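Fold this complex.
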Amino acid sequence: MQSLEFQEEITVFADVIIPVAIPNLYTYRVPREYATSICVGARVIVQFGKTKVVTAVVAKLHNKPPEKYQAKYVLELLDDAPLVTPQQIDLFHWISEYYMCTVGEVLNVALPSGLKISSLSKVQFNPEFSYPDLLTEREREIIEELKKHQSLNYDELARFAEVKNVYHIIKSLIQKKAVIVFEEVREKYSPKILKKVRLTSFYEDESYLKILLGELEKKPQQLDVLLHYLRYVPVLRSPELNNKGLEKSALTKAEVSDSAIKTLVKNGILEQFEVVVSRFEEDLDFVEAPTPTLSSSQEKAFSEIMNSFQEKDTTLLHGITGSGKTEVYIKLIEQVLESGSQVLYLLPEIALTTQIVVRLRKVFGDKMGIYHSRFSDNERVEVWKGVVSGKFSFVIGVRSAVFLPFDNLGLIIVDEEHETSYKQFDPAPRYHARDVAVVIAHRQKAKVLLGSATPSIESFYNAQTNRYGFVEMTERFGSTQLPDIELIDVKVARKQKMVKGDFSDLMLDRVRLNLEKKEQTIFFQNRRGYSPYIQCEDCDTIASCNNCDVSLTYHYNGQELRCHYCGHHEPMPRTCQACGSVKLRTRGYGTEKIEEELQILFPSAKIARMDLDTTRTKTAFQTLINEVESGGVDMLVGTQMVAKGLDFEKVSLVCVFDADRMIHFPDFRSAERAFQLLTQVAGRAGRRGTQGKVLIQTNNPSQKILKQIIENDYVGLYKDEIKEREDFQYPPFTRLIQITVKHIDQPIAEKAAEELANKLAEKLSKQRVLGPEKPLVERIRNQFLFEVMIKLEKTLNLKAAKAFIAEEVMNLRLSKDFKGISVVVDVDCG
DNA sequence: AGCACGCCGACT
DNA sequence: GTCGGCGTGCTC
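Structure:
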């Protein structure tokens, strides 16, 4: 045991993670005042570089002063208990190593931005300055501007001075002591505060209250307020309700006099107070619903899962669409929560907005936190802090919810585990939430349940080879039949002139029938906009993006051409940019055009469209869903959004265009994806009682995969796929790492990619390194792309291989021959 | 990734 | 000379 005196002599140093794309930790010196309260996982504010003040997280505490430099001081300590658990810090390191990025990048996406602190350097006029003669004309202007404001930041000054780099001027002003520069640091997160009033406790006594009411006889406004209050709060019957008070807004809404409230407060009859409330409490007037009773097949699945968890850490639940997986989840969650452990329930973003949240809230109430990107950052902070404090033992959330500070997980459910949105593409870390979930569960000795109607080939393989447990649900809940899927050969229909626009007559007949029956129809076209390209009839030129190597999509809404890669948009031209001809034609079908043509064909029908363009905001999305649910819409046209997680009662027909494009997409996962998407969209038809109908238009009805979709033959698809994967050495037999090399100059990009591929092949062997190849889109945002693909078999020492790859990538980035190159590494891509 | 710092050419 | 552009290297 060290003596206290001795301990005090030791300086504490903190190695911190800075949330930016820089490798390594940085060492700061901890001021004595924080030396005992600082802990691993606490946030600190530090000066990083000459200008920036950032929030960082303590990863390590020690007493070794750095040898080569003088450590700067920690400026401020934000938490006296870990906001990030030490386990998470380990996990962040693991993720950064596995996905080949920096820990800073991991921290940056892990922490909601409300927990990072913003810093702005502010410039203020120095009131003690008294040598105006020293200033240049421009400097004098700036000083005058500064005098008008309290202070301005660099950006604002630059705008005023109309120069790009205002730094020189400010530097000169600082030297002349004309201005003061200071840092403004503030916490972005602000808790929600509710203003409340209550009767002072004196009047909780009946006799005093009566006297008061008598006294107020002649003050009708005040009496009105008081009577309103008493109507809401039965003060005499339950003083504890008075203690909780009433929201001030409830009184003002009741149109009582505002000034009367003030007078009552002034006279000590009412008192005002504030409470900090959770942002979720407001929708807490939920009706507690009992746990649903399980059907016999659900009960069976539940006990099989429990059994499977005895032996296996991860279990795959393959339950066909509509088999009622949610009820099984609910029972599992309840069980784990009762045992005192935490539960994380992951869902793809699109599925989270809908009915399921309402349903779970009814069962779990305020134990449940919701972590969603459509929510404000304040709400995310609330959930994060709620997990730390123990308020939320159960969180339902999207991909990034795997970063929440759980320390005692019992179960992670990954619903729709095959969904690609679990994989983050940009920016780094390019992690897969399902795979990270498995790692977290392993570290916390928790169980993982992967649920899907169409499991990913990888997960099903893991189940087949006994790495995962496996449970099946083959019965549809309420014994609804699976939809009847019919293929329409559009090639034949075209020959027989039985196609109008993109609609075969067969399809139109069905749609008409459905409209007459007042049942709803969904149209699935996985392309937004009006037409994917426009073409000149005279010279055949297709309008393309200036910055990317893609055609521009015509959007009727807004009358503009848009690039779906870089976001560039321009007004719809009247003439061809190549030859000046006015004969511009829209080509191909997007959701907007489908919608338009349907409206012409069925003028009386109410038609809605659901795609990225119509659901930009949280409310727009919900409004659309409500409209469809209430039956106010006859036809819904949409992209894959309509396929995912939405349960509409009255949909009895689903029409699919262009299935072929999905099936033949050049990617080794295209068959799997097509099966998943088409099965999901088909599942939207006929939820309860009746059998739904699905029509798929295709140029080639004899494709095997279409037969598998019709027969819901997942195992058949799996067998075909797994063989292909083995033959061509794709996952799950190998791990893929994709490296994308980008440069404004195509030959440089190509040369760099070639050099990299050669270096990698030298050590990893030629079989393991493919490319470089031009990707489907050669140029994005004026950068030419080349891709190198690395296939590593699972038996290989992955860690060593990655370390080598990382080294080569770093060499390339720093290479003097390839200045301006950027290299993106994507582990487990796709 | 920013961003300061330094070197270099253009212009008052 | 001063101003702005661009390339380079560092951040505890």
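The first strand of chain A starts at residue 12 and ends at 17.
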